[in-house]
Amino acid sequence: MKLRGIGIGSMLYGLGYGFARPDFGSAEVDVAFDGSVTLRNGASELGQGLRTILCQLVADELGVRFEEVSIVSADTEKTPDSGPVSASRATYVQGNAVIKACRDLKARLGEVATELLDTPPERLVFRNGHVHDGESPSTSVPFTTLASEAHARGRRFQGYGWHRITTPDVDPETSQGNAYATYAWASQLAEVEVDTETGQVEVIRLASATDAGKAINPKGVEGQIEGGAVQGLGFALMENMIVERGTFVNSRLSTYLIPTAADVPRIDPLIVEVYDPTGPHGAKGVAEPATIPTAPAIFNAIADAIGKHITRTPANPERILQLLGKLETEQETAMALEDLPYPPP
Description:
By secondary structure, this protein is of the alpha+beta class. 26% of the residues lie in helices and 26% in strands. The protein has six helices and 13 strands.
């Protein structure tokens, strides 16, 4: 018999490292004589689309085309320290550092623009490839002309930005208080089908709603949500570390199972935008938040289908059949530290 169920899982997640350790990022932005812009950023690209997002922020801040921005990433000889890419912090922390670097560069370029336009620096607006007088839009200079003029005057400009997350309301003695500068929120809905004869669980559909603050790159956010949901699917149904006498024995991809493309169900990524005033253009990280509620949603869907709650991962066929009373319950075993051979064989 095949039974279907629906389950929901929700989570909140503190972005970055919180009050426990320094959490900062830095960036450099410079402009060449032809108006092309280079961003130097220490944060690594892991396939999450960070390079694209950071270049989008640069283009938006400087009012130039995205194609005119290049990026140098994670080269310790050429880029400033941006900290690790972890804790869903890269867009939030590094994005703020990039914006600060762009604004530092604009202030320096503004020195030349003020002379060319005879306009006070506080009225300068960088937009659509030009620098305008905000009160007289027809008074403008092309960004490329401004860059070449700056170089012709022997003035090469580079902007630097540094951003650190602070959590000033945490009591250092008790560790009580608001531990993070901002939080991400996400909910998953899972629909599953459980085969009560074989114990096999098939996820029919996942719907994932994630608060992105402001989606700088909506397609990239959808990709992150989908990837996070797939990772959560693997955690719920497949991933299982087998340790024997202190040794990880299934350390290969042939024995430590993760989802393949054939295992991925329909996923509906839902971007929820609640502007975060502390984030770059209102954005915040979305990578891990999509992963965390997936397993709870799947487990709740299994419980809805068969009327019994599974309390251990993964929800493989053996454990489902044990829940249904069709297979003998596995014995929990423990080994004392002194029982382990040392040094290991």
